[in-house]
Amino acid sequence: MSTAPGAKRPPRPHRRPKKDPARITAFRALRAVDERDAYANLVLPPLLREAEKQGMDRRDAALATELVYGTLRGQGSYDAIIAACVDRPLREVDPPVLDVLALGAHQLLATRIPTHAAVSATVELARAVLGDGRAKFVNAVLRKISSQDLESWIGQVAPPYEDDAEDHLAVVHSHPRWVVAALWDALGRWQPGSAGRAAIEELLRADNERPEVTLVARPGRIAVEELAEELTGSTEGRWSPYALRLAEGGDPAELTAVQQNRAGVQDEGSQLVALALAAAPVEGRDTRWLDACAGPGGKAALLAALAAGRGAALVASERQPHRARLVARALAGNPGPYAVITADGTRPAWEPGSFDRALVDVPCSGLGALRRRPEARWRRRPEDVAGFGPLQRALLRSALDAVRVGGVVGYATCSPHLAETRAVVDDVLRGRADVEFVDARPLLPGVPSLGDGPDVQLWPHLHGTDAMYLALLRRTA
Ligand SMILES: C[S@@+](CC[C@H](N)C(=O)[O-])C[C@H]1O[C@@H](n2cnc3c(N)ncnc32)[C@H](O)[C@@H]1O
């Protein structure tokens, strides 16, 4: 039917954006991380389940997961590139628009998705979640981004290494500058012979790799070999005799052994911390063990299993009631005696000198677990590190008071930041003459590159673990 001359042309029927559950789910997860300070690893699974109920298949679920984690990891580099493609400061671009642009940049620059598909799918996403007007803006920016590959962009937007090494590495490896500086300082302290440009770049690169999923076969509850039978393609751990590294794919939460608490998901670095504390020599009584900061219970579950095998009992204490409930769930079925209590570790619910071994795995910035918490690097601020200091010192002092003379305390953090590791221990030891270091290195047999001791710092690029720190301390008087 033709339109009569002079008559107004009817508006074109509005075309609905195509349904794309993977990108919509990824966008929703990024919004939750941004708006609600949610953790991607907590917010994504329920969003995926919801989308799966509405028909999203496994391939799309895998794509959504890769888009969320990849975008969060690369955000520093992508922001620098997006900034070069828009004509106003990024802080003036609406956060949801920035999230769509970052999702698009990730697809264009770091995945095998063909350029035309990445642009058109992201523009469709923009139409669905931002509206047609802003989708045009997204389209224009993505077309500019697609004109070069990642390497050329980085060459253009990162300052030369020679001018400002930390700024350069921050853009190239997508870490905030202050985090680059802190990691580099710590690397210099623990690996003085190999803390040059190559080493820091290896570390930053390792932070941006998806970590392997590692399980722990809790001793006395299941043998590693038996667990391996449930897991085709899994390989044994590098350092922990109880570790099993999972092959790609598969959800460990579906394993019977995990559901029954006989096994759990646990990074090898965390396993090593518990194993080293349990292996530290203690003279005399060795039946009362404490985990003073136990939530959510990963190390407590391993310690409780080890304690059970040696006729000892574990008290797992946690200040937050909801996290204490997670500890109780993690310890359920432990073959030996244990108790889970809700208590503030700085105001102990136990008599001084009650324990033979104590772990104090203090709250920290988490800069050692950036591989699994990609958003943490953008959320944390330098002042957070200082903010944890008084609590970390108070918890260590209380843990030292909690053990008897001859007893051993393990002070652990999942941060390599020097202000949260050795500086805390040195400060606390300066104030008391009743504590000595125990060399932790021989208690991590076979683990290389542990530095001069007596405390140890693990590294993702050297050990394939989170960057856990451990100091072992003995009460001497
Ligand atoms: C790094 S996490 C411990 C992780 C745990 N060891 C594991 O392996 O699953 C630190 C824990 O300390 C708890 N916490 C913070 N302040 C505390 C306090 N004053 N007393 C006891 N626990 C505290 C936090 O709620 C958090 O669960």
Automatic annotation (TrEMBL):
<dbReference type="GO" id="GO:0006355">
    <property type="term" value="P:regulation of DNA-templated transcription"/>
</dbReference>
<comment type="similarity">
    <text>Belongs to the class I-like SAM-binding methyltransferase superfamily. RsmB/NOP family.</text>
</comment>
<keyword id="KW-0808">Transferase</keyword>
<keyword id="KW-0694">RNA-binding</keyword>
<dbReference type="InterPro" id="IPR018314">
    <property type="entry name" value="RsmB/NOL1/NOP2-like_CS"/>
</dbReference>
<feature type="binding site">
    <location>
        <position position="344"/>
    </location>
    <ligand>
        <name>S-adenosyl-L-methionine</name>
    </ligand>
</feature>
<keyword id="KW-0949">S-adenosyl-L-methionine</keyword>
<dbReference type="InterPro" id="IPR049560">
    <property type="entry name" value="MeTrfase_RsmB-F_NOP2_cat"/>
</dbReference>
<keyword id="KW-0489">Methyltransferase</keyword>
<dbReference type="Pfam" id="PF01029">
    <property type="entry name" value="NusB"/>
</dbReference>
<dbReference type="InterPro" id="IPR035926">
    <property type="entry name" value="NusB-like_sf"/>
</dbReference>
<feature type="binding site">
    <location>
        <position position="361"/>
    </location>
    <ligand>
        <name>S-adenosyl-L-methionine</name>
    </ligand>
</feature>
<feature type="active site" description="Nucleophile">
    <location>
        <position position="414"/>
    </location>
</feature>
<dbReference type="InterPro" id="IPR023267">
    <property type="entry name" value="RCMT"/>
</dbReference>
<dbReference type="InterPro" id="IPR006027">
    <property type="entry name" value="NusB_RsmB_TIM44"/>
</dbReference>
<dbReference type="Pfam" id="PF01189">
    <property type="entry name" value="Methyltr_RsmB-F"/>
</dbReference>
<comment type="function">
    <text>May act as RNA methyltransferase.</text>
</comment>
<feature type="binding site">
    <location>
        <begin position="293"/>
        <end position="299"/>
    </location>
    <ligand>
        <name>S-adenosyl-L-methionine</name>
    </ligand>
</feature>
<feature type="region of interest" description="Disordered">
    <location>
        <begin position="1"/>
        <end position="21"/>
    </location>
</feature>
<dbReference type="InterPro" id="IPR001678">
    <property type="entry name" value="MeTrfase_RsmB-F_NOP2_dom"/>
</dbReference>
<dbReference type="GO" id="GO:0008173">
    <property type="term" value="F:RNA methyltransferase activity"/>
</dbReference>
<dbReference type="GO" id="GO:0003723">
    <property type="term" value="F:RNA binding"/>
</dbReference>
<protein>
    <submittedName>
        <fullName>16S rRNA (Cytosine967-C5)-methyltransferase</fullName>
    </submittedName>
</protein>
<dbReference type="InterPro" id="IPR029063">
    <property type="entry name" value="SAM-dependent_MTases_sf"/>
</dbReference>
<feature type="binding site">
    <location>
        <position position="318"/>
    </location>
    <ligand>
        <name>S-adenosyl-L-methionine</name>
    </ligand>
</feature>
<feature type="domain" description="SAM-dependent MTase RsmB/NOP-type">
    <location>
        <begin position="189"/>
        <end position="476"/>
    </location>
</feature>
<feature type="compositionally biased region" description="Basic residues">
    <location>
        <begin position="9"/>
        <end position="18"/>
    </location>
</feature>
<dbReference type="GO" id="GO:0001510">
    <property type="term" value="P:RNA methylation"/>
</dbReference>
